[in-house]
Specification:
This protein is an alpha/beta fold and about 475 residues long. The protein folds into two domains: about 5-250, Tandem AAA-ATPase domain (Rossmann fold, 3-Layer(aba) Sandwich), CATH 3.40.50; about 250-475, Rossmann fold (3-Layer(aba) Sandwich), CATH 3.40.50. The chain is built from 18 helices and 21 strands. The strands form six sheets. A seven-stranded parallel β-sheet has the order 3-4-2-5-8-1-11, sandwiched between helices. Strands 12-21-20-17-19-18 form a six-stranded parallel β-sheet, with helices on both faces. The protein has a two-stranded antiparallel sheet with strand order 6-7. Helix 1 (about 10-20) crosses helix 2 (about 35-50), helix 10 packs antiparallel against helix 11 (about 295-305) and helix 17 crosses helix 18. The chain starts with 8 loop residues before the first helix and ends with a helix.
Amino acid sequence: MLTESQLRPYQLLMAQQVLDVPKCGLWSFMGSGKTVSVLTAIRTMMLSGSIQRPTLVVAPLRVAKHVWPKEVHKWEHLDHLRVSPVVGHGHHREAALLRPADIYTINYENFVWLAEYYRYGWPFGLVVLDEATKVKSLRASIRKNDQGTEWVQGQGGQRAKEILRTLHRFGTERVVELSGTPAPNGLKDLWGQIFLLDYGKRLGRVYDAFKERWFETDFNGWGMQPKVGAQQQIERQLKDICLSLRANDWFDVREPILHTIKVELPPEARTAYRKMEKELFTQVKGHNIEAFNAGAMTQKLLQLASGFAYKDAAESAPRDFVNVHELKLDALEEIVEEWAGQPILVSYQHRADLERICARFKQARPLDQKTKTLEDWDAGKIPILVAHPGSAGHGLNLQVGSNVLVYYSSGWNYEEDAQIAERIGPVRQAQSGFKRPVFHYRIVVSDTIEEEVLDRLQTKCSINESLMKAMSRRG
């Protein structure tokens, strides 16, 4: 378990920002530890009596369900905090709200339900909006009549308007917005997020006035572009409430910044996985999945962990598969949302991985031999490029298009794993004139053979040694 003394300097800066500024934004690079920073601030405020009511965290589903509840148990000084995820069906959410806790977490999709549930009284003293770009579409405003009555009206997504309406109605005094990319599509994305904090004090009380002040029609006559000096002026306006941290200022950009995202198998998938592990045979949704030796079993286990299983050839055409779970797809979706439109390179191992990724993400394109594909990637026209490490090896330059690599699934081959990393690696970034860090995400299913693969890749031990370690741990 980590101790408070192991918090990094920039994490202490973020925690202090939450303590000092009741309504603030933390704009910090992905993987900087925004979650532990906010939790540290919450713990400090609870001890000092600055907040006496529970905290509400609004986040993407997987983050609300897993990330915040697990984070408190990683740190010694946070282990006493009680976190209750308000997720699932209606009766599960109600039960979670009735459970005594210091922090309640809920996904954005259920906020409207939560607001209705607490329509007569808001029990939260602090609201944290994790991945605050989800409210960037807000275009509402606050109106007041002659009697002084105020109300929210205007455009924007239903969830964003309901968050504004609820925070304003109940006078929530502390609000924290977290984001790694607060303006993914340009400065215009900032208005809705900042309006939730200050009700228009800094960037204007209506979106049209914001546009008129800092933007002009671009060269094609349709879009908007910032006026000269607009970015500097907006930054000055927000300096007192938004803390912005860049990875370049805290990390050696010559080394990738690594993140391992752990997901848990659901009970049904876990049962199928364990049966295959013990008996070399299992059933998934009525289909027989069989392995004839230990090597084949290893591949079947990797498939099940990845979220699918190839059917037996006797009952289907070659390479037909059955879906087992979508945990990795959900985790990838959160990474895509976190980077908010910035191009991402995704590495996969199985043909079924590619098909499932492209089915979930319509903007994804496979890496092929066409020159046009590489040209579009370099031009930023491909939001998600999906590549097999074996086809993205020596000599291929992908660093212009992105500095983010996601290992959706991993294989035993260390050389292939390292080679795809080098396609956008720090050296290539520097060669192309980019002074930006490289981010590596690896999605791993807990307590499966994928952890042994990761161990193999990190230690370069033999495949046999990794398997022996796995079997000895399983008993």
